[in-house]
Amino acid sequence: MPLPATPLAPTLTLRSVDLADPAERARIDAWVRVQPAATPFHLPAWSVAVARACGHKSHTLVAERADGSLAGMVPLTEIASPLFGRALVSNGFAVDGGILAADPAAIRVLGDGAWALAQALRCPTLELRGGPAEGPEWHRDEHTYLGFVRPLAASDEAELLAIPRKQRAEVRKSLDNDLAVEIGSGAGDRKAHYAVYAESVRNLGTPVFPAALFREVLAEFGDAADILTVRAGGAAVASVLSLYFNGTAYPYWGGGTAAARGLRANDRMYFALMAHARGRGCTRFDFGRSKAGTGPAAFKKNWGFTPQPLMYVKRAASQEMLRDINPLSPRYRAKIEMWKKLPLWAANVIGPHISKGLG
């Protein structure tokens, strides 16, 4: 449901953008790429891939100055699920997004505009995963998630020295193991990645995303995304799909099979990815978000990454109407334990239908 262009301040106008218009898409893409706070999840490519793969509607709101130049934007995904309800999320299936503003005045304009759109779409909850938000209407959470980012070292040896001693020993052991590393984005790479990732998330008790989501993200990002897979005896045991944006590598969807731990395949995978990212010209490594107090958060800290609290905000008419999809919530514990026991084939059939509603 597009919003008409609406004057909201003497210098700013809010309107919705149709990403099917090549000129509009190119304009937004170019603007996002030069914003210091931008992430790959702000790019039109992400919104288009999510909408195409999962059947959700994407909405992009922009705030423009009187001369027509962009002052800010927010990408939004309209989620509808019989299990998890309706929500307008920035951005869908992403760990970041939210309002991106070059002009401070655009923050309030875009926040209020996103809330008006949520109400028009009958979405009780509006979620912004990162970025600023102004006003007392927002419920702020800076305790649930941690982010892990640090510079890449200049060489493999320097990278090893940047890793704390205990984890460095694990990486060195992984380098001694008979493991092969492959990088690509073809059908074989996608098949191997999906098999590994699906097993990994089933073992964690969460439903896997549709294979189409990985395929569409790779197609939309082109050379700015790829898959790195670690094999032992020819079998894929660890694999990660990564994005590359503005000099930063984003290992996004990664995991390992039951055999990966003993082989130290995950250690090999991330160390190889750091070298690969360096070879691509990246200078930063974004290890992604993890929930505070969890094993994944401890794993990333062991690699020499300092955790930083992530600010997520939500808006709803009342506290009771806020959507809760945090798997650490007590309401999901029994379901997660049950999911871990599902046969892999069953989890792979049922999981994508459930996960599409998480957004």
UniProtKB/TrEMBL annotation:
Q: Where is the BioF2-like acetyltransferase domain?
A: 168-300
Pfam families assigned: Acetyltransf_6
NCBIfam families referenced in this protein's UniProt entry, alphabetically: pepcterm_femAB (TIGR03019)
Task: Fetch the PANTHER family from UniProt.
Answer: LIPID II:GLYCINE GLYCYLTRANSFERASE (PTHR36174:SF1)
| Name recorded for this polypeptide | FemAB family XrtA/PEP-CTERM system-associated protein
Species of origin: Sphingomonas hylomeconis
